[in-house]
Amino acid sequence: MSTPIPPPSRHSLEAEVLRTRAELAAAIDELTTRLSPGYQASRIAHEAKQAASDAGAMATGAFGNKNGPAQDPRRARNAKVLIGATLGLVVLGTAVAVTAVLRRARG
Protein backbone atom coordinates (compact mmCIF):
# COMPACT_ATOMS: atom_id res chain seq x y z
CA MET A 1 0.00 0.00 0.00
CA SER A 2 1.40 3.40 -0.96
CA THR A 3 1.61 6.30 1.40
CA PRO A 4 -0.63 9.26 0.55
CA ILE A 5 1.11 12.37 -0.75
CA PRO A 6 0.42 15.37 1.44
CA PRO A 7 -1.13 18.37 -0.32
CA PRO A 8 1.32 21.17 -1.16
CA SER A 9 1.50 24.03 1.28
CA ARG A 10 0.15 27.46 0.49
CA HIS A 11 3.68 28.88 0.52
CA SER A 12 4.94 26.36 -2.03
CA LEU A 13 1.93 26.98 -4.29
CA GLU A 14 2.48 30.76 -4.15
CA ALA A 15 6.18 30.29 -4.94
CA GLU A 16 5.31 28.10 -7.92
CA VAL A 17 2.81 30.66 -9.23
CA LEU A 18 5.40 33.44 -8.94
CA ARG A 19 8.03 31.31 -10.70
CA THR A 20 5.58 30.45 -13.50
CA ARG A 21 4.64 34.12 -13.93
CA ALA A 22 8.30 35.10 -14.20
CA GLU A 23 8.95 32.38 -16.80
CA LEU A 24 5.89 33.44 -18.79
CA ALA A 25 6.93 37.10 -18.68
CA ALA A 26 10.42 36.19 -19.91
CA ALA A 27 8.97 34.11 -22.75
CA ILE A 28 6.65 36.95 -23.80
CA ASP A 29 9.54 39.44 -23.72
CA GLU A 30 11.68 37.16 -25.87
CA LEU A 31 8.87 36.61 -28.39
CA THR A 32 8.18 40.35 -28.56
CA THR A 33 11.85 41.02 -29.27
CA ARG A 34 12.14 38.28 -31.90
CA LEU A 35 9.02 39.42 -33.72
CA SER A 36 9.84 43.13 -33.75
CA PRO A 37 10.52 44.56 -37.22
CA GLY A 38 13.72 46.25 -36.04
CA TYR A 39 15.16 42.99 -34.73
CA GLN A 40 14.20 41.14 -37.91
CA ALA A 41 15.79 43.84 -40.09
CA SER A 42 19.04 43.82 -38.11
CA ARG A 43 19.17 40.00 -38.20
CA ILE A 44 18.65 39.95 -41.98
CA ALA A 45 21.28 42.67 -42.47
CA HIS A 46 23.75 40.72 -40.33
CA GLU A 47 23.12 37.52 -42.29
CA ALA A 48 23.55 39.36 -45.61
CA LYS A 49 26.88 40.87 -44.48
CA GLN A 50 28.01 37.47 -43.23
CA ALA A 51 27.02 35.83 -46.54
CA ALA A 52 29.02 38.44 -48.46
CA SER A 53 32.02 37.83 -46.23
CA ASP A 54 31.64 34.06 -46.60
CA ALA A 55 31.34 34.37 -50.39
CA GLY A 56 34.62 36.28 -50.34
CA ALA A 57 36.16 33.52 -48.24
CA MET A 58 34.97 30.96 -50.79
CA ALA A 59 36.52 32.98 -53.61
CA THR A 60 39.87 33.34 -51.85
CA GLY A 61 40.07 29.72 -50.74
CA ALA A 62 39.72 30.45 -47.04
CA PHE A 63 36.35 28.71 -47.01
CA GLY A 64 37.39 25.61 -45.06
CA ASN A 65 39.25 27.29 -42.19
CA LYS A 66 38.23 26.73 -38.56
CA ASN A 67 35.92 29.77 -38.31
CA GLY A 68 34.77 29.72 -41.91
CA PRO A 69 31.32 29.04 -43.28
CA ALA A 70 32.14 25.38 -44.00
CA GLN A 71 31.56 24.64 -40.31
CA ASP A 72 27.96 25.92 -40.48
CA PRO A 73 25.78 24.48 -43.29
CA ARG A 74 23.41 27.45 -43.16
CA ARG A 75 26.24 29.94 -43.66
CA ALA A 76 27.66 27.87 -46.51
CA ARG A 77 24.23 27.73 -48.17
CA ASN A 78 23.75 31.50 -47.80
CA ALA A 79 27.16 32.15 -49.37
CA LYS A 80 26.38 29.82 -52.28
CA VAL A 81 22.98 31.47 -52.81
CA LEU A 82 24.63 34.89 -52.86
CA ILE A 83 27.24 33.74 -55.38
CA GLY A 84 24.53 32.17 -57.55
CA ALA A 85 22.35 35.27 -57.42
CA THR A 86 25.31 37.50 -58.28
CA LEU A 87 26.28 35.33 -61.23
CA GLY A 88 22.65 35.27 -62.38
CA LEU A 89 22.46 39.06 -62.28
CA VAL A 90 25.71 39.35 -64.22
CA VAL A 91 24.42 36.98 -66.89
CA LEU A 92 21.09 38.81 -67.07
CA GLY A 93 22.82 42.20 -67.33
CA THR A 94 25.11 40.92 -70.04
CA ALA A 95 22.16 39.51 -71.99
CA VAL A 96 20.30 42.82 -71.74
CA ALA A 97 23.36 44.78 -72.86
CA VAL A 98 24.02 42.44 -75.81
CA THR A 99 20.36 42.60 -76.84
CA ALA A 100 20.43 46.41 -76.74
CA VAL A 101 23.62 46.57 -78.80
CA LEU A 102 22.23 44.14 -81.40
CA ARG A 103 18.99 46.09 -81.69
CA ARG A 104 20.89 49.35 -82.25
CA ALA A 105 23.10 47.69 -84.84
CA ARG A 106 20.08 46.52 -86.80
CA GLY A 107 18.81 50.02 -86.92
From TrEMBL:
InterPro entries per the UniProt record, alphabetical: DUF3618 (IPR022062)
Pfam families hit by this protein: DUF3618
Keyword Transmembrane: yes
Transmembrane segments: 81-102
Keywords assigned: Membrane, Transmembrane, Transmembrane helix
Stated name of the protein: DUF3618 domain-containing protein
Lineage: Bacteria, Bacillati, Actinomycetota, Actinomycetes, Micrococcales
